[in-house]
């Protein structure tokens, strides 16, 4: 049923004014500091019991801190290079990282599975659908762990407390909360850009008398059901609140709407919801494309589809949509076409931004119109409409989220940009009204650790007792995003000063893992015990990023984790100026030359 919505004239200025008005409702002086930490009790692992074990005091060649895709890929690539004593450490009870923790009903990945799931060719696994559910991704993580022998030495439910470079032995000492004190020749870390869950910055959270948990620590004992979407049968007679309508909220709401007695969805900013249109992967089609090197080809193609769209005119390339992505790919294609619609002789930043602005306006108009076509109640539909540029927030794609609001048990509590006010022993207060509920589910997101320091919960002490926190106190400083002078034999897998937002995060992790495997192989084969980048090369690399780095360009956006909640961005957290594909090409050439320019082996 079609619903008349609040309309803003299609005229660009009126729209821009509306966007600015909506943004100003949400700007807060406390920015990122508004959020609360979960605390130890809420962070506990609800999925796997902690097993007592003896402390470890041995030596391994390669250790990686973090058992998500970054660690799995690094472990696999080092293993492929012939180093089999690999140890991965994680605070979780298994591999998987984000896919270990995020088991909320409805969890899935919005990036096409054929490019997102790494090592498909190596493991011979064909995903079941174009976009797959969380449990299938988690199982793939375990598959990689098994295939590359990574379980043998793994330390789960283990938190690193300190790593110290032992100069006299050319190795790292690793100290953990389980009493471990072991050494390792090479050390990697990939702590994840979104791994520290946060709670809304409102008072009273600890006063609530009912059940409550963050989506990354789902309490199935309370709700019933399972991560595969099985009915949450214990909620049938419950009044449930969900706070947050980002990518997680959008995936979880349909399952809660289906199963809860009453559902109250507390919204501060609506997400833009595009079409999902998921489908099984056809095995015959898959066989036809799965010729040697197929996954790298698809991944390169997918990364290329996003190049040159962040406010700089990249090459005017027509990138074929090999995986048939109806989500992110068309967004990139639209923006690139707009950039190149400006005749070269008339090209200016202003003209380009105008062209991009008008395709963006049309795209968002369609997103808003879709709400009207699906949501039957006019007022609810109006409140679900997003008023910002498409890339200001993470675009979402879902076909069941909006219809959830047509269910009589599901109530949208829009807060007009202000957020919920407080939690009481009985429920949630928003717009001055207290909503009594039995359970509160926090879909309130994660600290966006663009800089590794934000997720670094342990000390890294390098040469001459210098700490990484001290070295990076005034900004991230690396060579290639992964080496840091004074920290020999250390590889950091992160976003800044490297591939950054290359559309598919696992392509970046994989590329870095290949680099790590190549360097470790070179060192071990040639009997080198130390590898470290030069200070000069690092300074030049940082300088290039500070002066030419491509910023996310989200300063005028509605606040969110993309733009540090509307605060000043750290200028050192930028991607390789020429883009992700160019970074991959540069590193590939650097690796394959065998000279490892600017690294010193000894
Ligand atoms: P987000 O940070 O995107 O969303 C948090 C939500 O909590 C927002 O809607 C936010 O509102 C809301 N919120 C915060 N404080 C309050 C408050 N006081 N009152 C009411 N609402 C509040 O976290 P998500 O977990 O949803 O997503 C994080 C990221 O994780 C995604 O962007 C994506 O990158 C990744 N993800 C990826 C998936 C995938 O498909 N691969 C699936 C799910 C997540 P506001 O918007 O106003 O800040």
Beta-strand percent range = 15-25%
Q: In the CATH hierarchy, what is the class of the largest domain? A: Alpha Beta
- The third-level CATH topology of the largest domain is FAD/NAD(P)-binding domain
**How large, in whole angstroms, is the Cα Rg?**
24 Å
Strand element count: 22
Mean pLDDT equals 92
What are the SSEs and their pairings?
Elements: H1 12-26, E1 36-37, H2 39-43, E2 59-65, H3 69-80, E3 86-89, H4 98-101, H5 113-116, H6 120-123, H7 134-147, E4 160-166, E5 171-176, E6 181-189, E7 196-199, E8 211-214, H8 220-223, E9 239-243, H9 247-259, E10 262-267, E11 273-274, H10 283-289, H11 294-304, H12 328-340, H13 349-374, H14 378-383, E12 396-397, H15 401-404, E13 410-414, E14 422-423, E15 427-430, E16 433-436, E17 439-442, E18 446-447, H16 452-455, E19 459-461, H17 468-471, E20 490-492, H18 505-526, E21 531-533, H19 535-548, H20 580-592, E22 599-601
Parallel strand pairs: 2-3, 2-6, 4-19, 6-20, 8-17, 9-10, 9-17, 10-13, 11-12
Antiparallel strand pairs: 1-7, 4-5, 5-6, 7-18, 14-15, 15-16, 21-22
The structure holds NADPH dihydro-nicotinamide-adenine-dinucleotide phosphate.
Would you kindly provide a written description of the structure presented here, covering whatever features stand out?
α3 (69-80) runs parallel beside α18 (505-526) and α18 runs parallel beside α20. This protein folds into 2 domains: 12-37 and 197-276 and 354-447, FAD/NAD(P)-binding domain; 59-193 and 449-542 and 576-601, FAD/NAD(P)-binding domain, CATH 3.50.50.60. It contains 20 helices and 22 strands. Helix content is 33%, strand content 15%. The strands form 6 sheets. Strands 2, 3, 4, 5, 6, 19 and 20 form a 7-stranded mixed β-sheet that branches. The protein is of the alpha/beta class and 602 residues long. 46% of the residues are buried. Bound molecules: NADPH dihydro-nicotinamide-adenine-dinucleotide phosphate (NDP). NADPH dihydro-nicotinamide-adenine-dinucleotide phosphate (NDP) is lined by residues 26, 109-110, 194, 200, 202, 243-249, 251, 266, 268-269, 394, 419-420, 443-446, 560-561.
């Amino acid at each position: 049923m079609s619903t008349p919505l609040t309309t803003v004239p299609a005229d660009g200025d009126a729209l821009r004014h509306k966007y600015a008005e909506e943004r100003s409702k949400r700007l807060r002086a406390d920015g990122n500091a508004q959020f609360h930490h979960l605390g130890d009790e809420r962070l506990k692992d609800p999925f796997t019991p902690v097993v007592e074990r003896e402390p470890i005091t041995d030596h391994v060649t390669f250790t990686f801190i973090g058992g998500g895709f970054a660690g799995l890929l690094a472990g696999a690539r080092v293993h492929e290079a012939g180093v089999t004593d690999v140890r991965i450490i994680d605070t979780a009870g298994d591999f998987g990282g984000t896919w270990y923790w995020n088991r909320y009903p409805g969890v899935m990945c919005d990036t096409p599975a054929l490019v997102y799931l790494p090592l498909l060719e190596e493991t011979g696994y064909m995903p079941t659908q174009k976009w797959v559910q969380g449990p299938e991704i988690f199982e793939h993580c375990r598959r990689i762990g098994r295939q590359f022998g990574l379980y043998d030495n793994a330390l789960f439910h283990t938190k690193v407390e300190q790593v110290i470079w032992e100069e006299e032995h050319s190795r790292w000492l690793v100290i953990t909360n389980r009493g471990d004190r072991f050494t390792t020749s090479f050390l990697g870390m990939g702590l994840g850009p979104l791994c520290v869950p946060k709670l809304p910055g409102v008072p009273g959270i600890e006063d609530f008398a009912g059940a409550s948990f963050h989506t990354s620590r789902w309490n199935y004992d309370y709700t019933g059901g399972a991560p595969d979407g099985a009915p949450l049968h214990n909620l049938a007679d419950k009044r449930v609140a969900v706070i947050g309508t980002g990518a997680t909220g959008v995936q979880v709401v349909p399952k809660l709407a289906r199963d809860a007695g009453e559902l109250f969805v507390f919204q501060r900013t609506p997400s833009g919801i595009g079409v999902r249109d998921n489908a099984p992967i056809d095995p015959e089609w898959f066989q036809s494309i799965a010729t040697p090197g197929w996954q790298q080809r698809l991944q390169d193609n997918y990364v290329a589809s996003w190049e040159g769209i962040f406010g700089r005119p990249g090459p005017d390339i027509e990138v074929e949509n090999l995986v048939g992505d109806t989500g992110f790919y068309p967004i990139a294609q639209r923006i690139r076409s707009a950039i190149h619609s400006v005749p070269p002789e008339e090209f200016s930043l202003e003209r380009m931004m105008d062209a991009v602005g008008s395709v963006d306006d049309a795209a968002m108009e369609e997103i808003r119109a879709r709400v009207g076509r699906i949501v039957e109640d006019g007022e609810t539909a109006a409140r679900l409409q997003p008023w910002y540029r498409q890339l200001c927030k993470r675009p979402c794609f879902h076909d069941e989220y909006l219809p959830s609001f047509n269910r009589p048990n599901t109530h949208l509590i829009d807060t007009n940009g202000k957020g919920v006010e407080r939690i009481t022993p009985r429920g949630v207060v928003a717009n001055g009204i207290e909503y009594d509920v039995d359970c509160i589910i926090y879909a309130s997101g994660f600290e966006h650790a663009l800089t590794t320091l934000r997720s670094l919960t342990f000390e890294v002490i390098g040469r001459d007792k210098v700490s990484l926190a001290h070295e990076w106190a005034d900004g991230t400083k690396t060579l290639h995003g992964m080496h840091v002078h004074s920290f020999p034999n250390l590889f950091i897998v992160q976003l800044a000063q490297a591939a950054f937002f290359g559309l598919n995060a696992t392509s970046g992790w994989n590329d870095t893992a290949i680099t790590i495997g190549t360097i470790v192989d070179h060192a071990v084969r040639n009997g080198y015990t130390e590898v470290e980048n030069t200070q000069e090369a690092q300074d030049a690399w940082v300088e290039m990023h500070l002066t030419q780095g491509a910023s996310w360009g989200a300063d005028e956006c509605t606040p969110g984790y993309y733009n540090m909640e509307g605060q000043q961005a750290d200028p050192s957290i930028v991607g390789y100026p020429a883009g992700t594909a160019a970074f991959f090409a540069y590193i590939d050439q650097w690796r394959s030359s065998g000279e490892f320019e600017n690294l010193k082996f000894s």
